[in-house]
Amino acid sequence: MQYDPIKRSLGKVFNQTPVLRKIFYQLLDWLLLRAWHIRKELRKRTRTSPEVKTILDAGSGFGQYTYRMARWFPKATIKAVDIKPEQIADCNQFMKKAGLGKRVKFELADLTRFEEKSTYDLVLSVDVMEHIEEDVLVFKNFYASMKKGGLLLISTPSDQGGSDSHDHEHEEGVHGFIDEHVRDGYNILDIQTKLKSVGFSKVEARYSYGAPGKISWKLSMKYPILMLGASKVFFVILPFYYLITFPLSVILNFFDLGIKHKSGTGLIVKAWK
Fold first, then answer.
1. Which residues touch 13 (CB under 8 Å, ≥6 apart)?
2. Mean of the pLDDT values across residues 43-61?
3. Cα 46 from Cα 38, distance rounded (Å)
4. What is the CA radius of gyration of the chain?
5. The domain that contains 190 carries what CATH number?
6. What range defines the domain where residue 68 resides?
7. Which of 22, 129, 161, 226 has the most other CB atoms within 10 Å of its CB?
8. What is the pLDDT of residues 245-259, one digit of tens each?
């Protein structure tokens, strides 16, 4: 399934005013389980030293994580990069309206070519690496762009069905639920080995989207996307659908966050320079 057209349609609805945009961000924070795990790790980082002064949001998308980091790290300057020009312009406009334009800048960039030597204390990459074939090159660029002691935080699908690929193993030529992925997910040891190979001194990885998270993802994301992909009529039905499923998804996300998973369809990876 082509996921990007659906995201663009949702963006048009919520990008009409800054208030709607903030509501959209809040909904994503509650619905997307990866946002729960990223918040958990970022809160840990706010309590440690040295102080975060410079941040790179590598693959910023709608800008929801950039917006949150601007609030959690009030003294930091943030550069957010993406390959989609329309999102860059839109996010810059929103940040100015939100009063964050002086500290937050969105720029067009290809991560396989992006390098700003020893610049960033924190690099965030959420659901990006599964879209990039030359991943080791990107990891090298992250490493070169970070300051000594800096943290790289990655959220990405695992090879345990992270692109919902295991649901389609019986179908020839079908690799995953989202067509834009160049890999169905990372092996946990493989991504750690790749990060260490480019110089990172310490790497930690853990599974997310365990049993509760898998159910939550299907309820909050997979089924609505399938409905919207079938017909735009479901935009009208969607609020009523979430009225029923939203409370259950929040409970499932809460449990997924608190459990140490032996396996899961997502990975949370941290690497220190």
1. 20, 235
2. 90
3. 12
4. 18
5. 3.40.50.150
6. 4-272
7. 129
8. 999 999 999 999 999
